[in-house]
Write a structure and sequence with these properties.
The protein is mainly α. About 65% of the residues lie in helices and about 0% in strands. α8 runs parallel beside α10 (about 155-160).
């Protein structure tokens, strides 16, 4: 077990200062992201690892295509709602391959049915992101998000208001596809 893995396992999930100290100690390591991704399947490490991955993406840059491949492979093992939330929150701004979409879409659709309203809110956001990149998903995503705007909890609706759903999804028919501009 590496020092990072040991610290991930010891984090109690409450102190932002403690997890930020872990980040500061390790984020410059060349294999930092790889170690976090390797830690995701571990139930005792996934909350800390997913938080650090999200923070890394917020501070540094997007995950590489191979890192996204690894992340997508671990999606079915994310058992804790906070880990699911962190991953959903780090998805915006990434371009996804068809293979990644095949792994992400079931995760996102399952998260839309989560009991946790924050997970649901960010799952709708992720569905929106996928629809922007994959034309065949747009109609269903628009319908799903439109229903959510009518039926969901107020906190979920607040997140949905940040999406310019009809304009961005419907307007993408002639716009970008799969994260690339024609």
């Amino acid at each position: 077990m590496t020092g990072l893995e040991r610290e991930l396992a010891l984090w109690h999930g409450k102190s932002t200062d403690a997890i930020l100290h872990i980040y500061q100690r390790y984020y410059r390591d060349a294999d930092f992201c790889a170690k976090l991704l390797q830690s995701l399947p571990s139930p005792c490490n996934q909350q800390a690892a997913s938080w650090l991955l999200k923070h890394y993406c917020e501070q540094q840059a997007s995950l590489s295509p191979s890192e996204l491949d690894t992340l997508c492979l671990h999606l079915p093992r994310l058992a804790h709602w906070q880990s699911q939330l962190h991953v959903l929150q780090l998805l915006p701004g990434h371009s996804f391959s068809h293979t990644q979409r095949q792994q992400l879409e079931p995760f996102v659709r399952t998260a839309i049915g989560s009991e946790n309203k924050f997970v649901r809110a960010w799952a709708y956001n992720a569905l929106h992101e996928l629809a922007l990149q994959f034309k065949d998903l747009r109609r269903d995503a628009l319908d799903t998000i439109t229903c959510a705007q009518r039926d969901e909890a107020p906190s979920v609706k607040a997140r949905l208001r940040h999406l310019k759903t009809a304009a961005t999804i419907s307007g993408k028919a002639a716009g970008t596809t799969h994260g690339k501009t024609p």
